[in-house]
Structure formats: C-alpha cells, structure tokens
Design a protein that fits this description.
Helix content: 55-70%
Number of strands: 10
Radius of gyration: 37 Å
Largest sheet: 6 strands, mixed
CATH topology of the largest domain: ABC transporter transmembrane region fold
CATH class of the largest domain: Mainly Alpha
Strand content: 5-15%
CATH architecture of the largest domain: Up-down Bundle
Distance between the termini: 80 Å
Number of domains: 2
Shape: elongated
Structural class: alpha/beta
Length: about 625
C-alpha cells in the first residue's frame, strides 16, 4: 500500500508539469479514442465482407436477431444490423459490394484523419510539456544558492535538464494518451470477443496471469538498470562539458588519449546498462506474444471444432480470430508503456532531487535603502564542511567611501570573506551588518545589487560587447559607451569592426585577457553600484595588460566604496585600511605604512614581492 501511495504522490508531482496544457492533452486523448473506435471498426468490417462473399443467406437474414446470450452480443448484433442496413441492396449483390467498399474507404479515411489530428495535438502538448519542465528546473536552479553548485557536478545538472526531462516526458506524461488509446482498443476488442464467445475469450486470456507475474518480477530490474543508465548519461555529459570547457588544458598537456578513454569508459557503461535494460523490455513483449499466439492456436482448434459441430458460425470464428489477433498489438503496447514507466520514474527522482533542494541563503523581508554608513563583519565564523572552519572570529568594518583591501596567502580565506559579504553564503555563526542591520533580514537580490563585482575569471558570452556589458541590466548604448570610457575600454572597442556591437566569441576568446577584464569593469560600473569589488582582477594578466587594467580600476575607484583583493601589494598601498588574513583569521589591520611599521606578516609579504621584483628586473 505504501508503494502505491508513493507512486500516486510521485506521479501527481509529474503531472504538475502539464499545468496549462490539459486542454491539448485532453484533445489528443479524445482524438486517440475516436481513432481507436475506427481502428476497431476496420477489423469488425471483416464479418460483412465474409458474409457477402461466402454466405449470402446470412447477409439477407442478419436482421433476424435472436435473444442475445450476453449484453455485448446484443450490441454486436445491433451494430451489424445497422451496417447491413447501410450496405445491403436486396436486388443486387454487386451494388452491395460497391456500398461495402465505399464504407471501408470511409472508415479507413476517418481513422487516418483522426490519427493524424491526434498526432499533431499530442506533439504540440509534448513539446510544450518539455518546455514547461525545462523552464521550471532552470528557474529552480537559478534560485538556489552558490553552495548547491559547489557540491553538484555541472554535467549532472545538464543531464537532468536534457536527458532526464526527455525521459520523464516520453515515459510517463506523453504515454497517458497512448495508454488510454490502447486501453480503449483493448476494451472494444474484448467486447467483440465476449460477444462472439465468452468461453473462447476466457480460454484466450488465461495466459495473462503468467504475463502479469513475469512483469512483476521484471520491474525491479527495470528500475535498477534505468537508474544506472541515467547515472552513466550524467557521467559522460559531465566529461563532455569539462572537456569542452578545458580544451586548452587538454591540448597543452597532450591529454587527448586520457580524456578519450575516460569518455569511452562512461559511454561503454551506458551501453552495458542500456543493453541489460533493453534485454528485459524486449523479452517481455516477446514472451507475452508467444503465450498469446499459443492461446490463438488453442482458440483456433476449439473454435474450429465448434464450427465443424455447427455450434458456431464460420464468420463469427473469423471475427473472433481477427479481433484476438488485433488485440495483441494494443496489449503489447500497453505492457511496453508500463515497463518504460520505470525509466521515467527513475528520471523523475533525479529531477525532484533538484526541485526539492532548498537554498541555503534565504531572503529576508526588509528592503534596504542603500549604503548609508558602513558594512560590518562581526564575530564571523564560516565552514564549508562541519568542523573545518575556513574563517574564525573575523571582525572588520567597510566604511562608506573608503577603500578596504584583503590580503593573505593562498587559502587564507580572502575570497570566502568576499563571498560572505556579497551574501553568496551565510556565516556559520556571527553576523554581517549593513548600517547596523543584519543582512539576512534583507532581500538577497536587492542586497547584492549594492555590489559591482570584477573577479579573476571573467564570464563573457558569445555575444556583442554591448550585451555582455548590459547582461541582466537595461541600459542605453550611450550609457554602455560611458561605462567603457570610464573602464578604459573604449579605445580598443572603437577600433573593432562593429564597435560595441562586435561579437567577442565564446567566453570572449576573440579579445585579450586585459580587454576582457576592462569589459568586466564596464559591466560593474554600468550598474552604478554602491560598492565595487575587485577579486584579484589583474592576477592572470601580463605586466602591460595589468598596468592598463589597473589604471582603469584606479579611475573607477574615485569617490567609491571598494573592497579589493590584489596579488600585487603595491596596488593597494593607497587603501584606507588593509586587513591581513592568515589561516582564516584576521591577524593584522591598518594602513600600508602602519602595517609595514608593525613588521609582521604584511611586511614579510611586501619584502618577498620586492625581492622577486628586484630579481626579475636584474634578469631583464
């Protein structure tokens, strides 16, 4: 019972994706039911054909219906009485054949018309359901906090929104109309079978018990292999995504053979599980068909004896055999849909894992009024994993209009501190205050709008310079150009063929690293943020590019509040306050001159950089 409740609960969640498309799905369902009726009629019309060709007396006497032995027989007799009244011409068998031929043409014409209309309606519903699913999942992903993506594989998430969505739609939602269509055909054919001979019908379907037992045993393995297939798809999607993103590294280290073997390993796993899954899904209809054919042969033997003994008319036996043969196809399809359901349910589990994820950074209800006084970090502790603190009891103040720098060795917690101030994460303990108010109380998006961020790795898109600068923000071309001027980027942009409308390639590969950074600065400035954040924005640049970008940074910092992480300490010596982090703690703070006078960690860092610079100058 609990399994049934779990299935109902899960499937009701799946049907949530159909929201707004029930009309299309219902239309497809009705059209498929009508198609099923005409499909059945195309088989039922066999009886009058046989009667006209081989039993003219039966044709003339068809309306002399005796008392039916069951309600279905009465319906059958009424149906054939109506058909014969339409086609039979007492004076001419030739005219009767012409009418019968015309009726057959009409039945098959209408059957195919409704099949075509059902296909179009079903396709319309299917593609829109897939769109709904992808939109819902994508919207959910963008609502989650940064820590979710830190713990998730990008390839897995891509696989969920592509492969799993198709699987859920194809194996659970879109099958609704197919299942109901098959069920309708089975019901109508079953009615004909019972109408002709309840005894032969019982004999024919005695094999269904064996089929149901076989399906029950198969379900466990179907779910197991379906899950393994989805996981292997996720693995090779991840390998593909990582390789395309890091192709320069692959080429630089001659790692083609290694990455090819890794990808082939994942695709081989998929093939292995897909074959096992397909082995089961293929053997189920095969075994069912063998049992069905066995039942058909048995019915032929028993029914043939009844015809020989004049206990059954020959045309009724032919109708029974044709109906029994025709019912096999929808039964096989029905069983196939049921078995493929397991694949869809496994994919649905993976989708709901994403949809059920909760953002760790929760919006507050208050609306901030900008930065009036200061941002304060107070008694802050933070850990990505329990008992592994990255930041310990940190305290610092960022006054409005001042320039604050964070320095320290690799792994000291500088970038993590920035992420917490911008509120990509929330502290494990302690608090961050905006003008005395805990930032948790504010709407996260509104709070983040205070900041303009330029990081070491600039994310640019295969689009125009203007669209990259305006990304997620509405602005005129004049405002974009002004931002590029301030960011010291307009000089190189104006020399490009289409100016700010020039395409810069995937991740900005058509321009240099320094040019990419200046576009990133322009992007930050366009939004007129209250606080500018530079996270080692020049660390990946050569000396010449670094100087140009640093000049742009210096211009952008005029009369602004700023938080700066820089690998070159000479670029932050004019900051109002420098905080030195070591092993997650703030160990020193003060101006450049004050920290040098302390003779502590900061001075050692400056001495090391000075020695390195001197040696480089001597080498040059």
């Amino acid at each position: 019972m609990s399994k049934i409740k779990g299935f109902v609960r899960q499937y009701s969640r799946i049907l949530h994706f159909v929201k707004g498309l029930w009309g299309l799905l219902f239309l497809s369902l009705i059209l498929n039911i009508i198609f099923s009726l005409f499909e059945t009629m195309s088989i039922a019309i066999i009886q009058p054909v046989i009667q006209i060709l081989f039993d003219t007396d039966g044709v003339r006497n068809v309306q002399a219906v005796t008392n039916p032995s069951n309600p279905f027989e009465g319906i059958k007799n009424a149906f054939y009485a109506f058909i014969h009244s339409m086609i039979f011409v007492d004076s001419s068998m030739e005219a009767t054949l012409i009418r019968l031929s015309v009726l057959i043409l009409i039945i098959f014409f209408l059957k195919n018309i409704f099949k075509y209309a059902a296909t179009i309606a079903g396709t319309n519903a299917t593609v829109n359901i897939i769109k709904n699913m992808r939109d819902i999942i994508f919207t959910k992903l963008t609502s989650l906090s940064v820590d979710f993506f830190s713990k998730s594989r990008q390839g897995h998430l891509i696989s969920v929104i592509t492969n799993d969505v198709n699987s859920v739609n194809g194996n659970t939602i879109s099958t609704i109309t197919t299942i109901i269509k098959d069920f309708t055909q089975i019901a109508i054919f079953l009615m004909f079978l019972i109408a002709v001979s309840p005894y032969l019908t019982l004999v024919a379907f005695s094999t269904s018990i064996v089929s149901l037992l076989f399906i029950k045993i198969s379900i466990k393995y179907l779910r197991k292999y379906a899950g393994s297939m989805q996981e292997s798809m996720s693995n090779y999607t991840t390998a593909l995504q990582e390789t395309l993103f890091g192709m320069r590294i692959v080429k630089a280290y001659n790692a083609e053979v290694s990455i090819n073997n890794k990808f082939k390993s994942h695709t081989s796993e998929f093939v292995k599980f897909a074959l096992k899954h397909r082995t089961i899904t293929a053997i189920i209809p095969m075994i069912n068909e063998l049992f069905a054919i066995g039942a058909l042969c048995f019915v032929l033997f028993l029914g043939g004896k009844e015809v020989i003994d004049n206990q059954m008319r020959g045309e009724d036996l032919m109708l029974f055999l044709f109906a029994l043969f025709s019912i096999m196809s929808p039964i096989s399809s029905f069983i196939n849909q049921f078995t493929s359901f397991q694949t869809g349910l496994v994919a649905a589990d993976r989708i709901f894992t994403v949809l059920d994820a909760k953002p760790s950074v929760v919006d507050g209800e208050e609306h901030h009024k900008g930065l009036k006084s200061e941002i304060e970090v107070k008694n802050l502790h933070f850990a990505y994993e329990p008992e592994k603190e990255v930041l310990k009891n940190c305290n610092l103040i960022i006054p409005k209009g001042k320039k604050i720098a964070l320095v320290g060795g690799s792994g000291s917690g500088k970038s993590t501190m920035l992420d917490l101030i911008i509120r990509f994460y929330d502290p494990t303990s302690g608090e961050i205050l905006l003008d005395g108010e805990n930032i948790k109380n504010y709407n996260a998006k509104e709070y983040r709008s205070l900041f303009g961020v330029v990081s070491q790795e600039t994310l640019l898109f295969n689009d125009t310079i203007a669209n990259n600068i305006k990304y997620g923000f509405e602005a005129t071309d004049e405002e974009v150009i002004q931002a590029t001027i301030t960011a010291n980027a307009y000089s190189f942009i104006s020399k490009m063929p289409d100016g700010i409308n020039s395409i810069i390639g995937d991740r900005g590969v058509l321009i240099s690293g320094g040019e990419r950074q200046r576009i990133a600065i322009a992007r930050a400035l366009l939004r007129k943020p209250k606080v500018l954040v530079f996270d080692e924005a020049t660390s990946a640049l050569d000396v010449e590019s670094e100087k140009i970008v640093q000049d742009a940074i210096n211009v952008s910092l005029i009369n602004r509040t700023a938080i700066i992480i820089a690998h070159r300490l000479s670029t932050i010596k004019d900051c109002d306050c420098i905080y030195v982090l070591d092993k997650g703690s703030i160990v020193e703070s003060g101006s450049h001159s004050e920290l040098l006078a302390l003779g502590g960690i900061y001075k050692k860092m400056c001495d090391i950089q000075y020695d390195i610079s001197s040696k480089n100058e001597n080498v040059n």
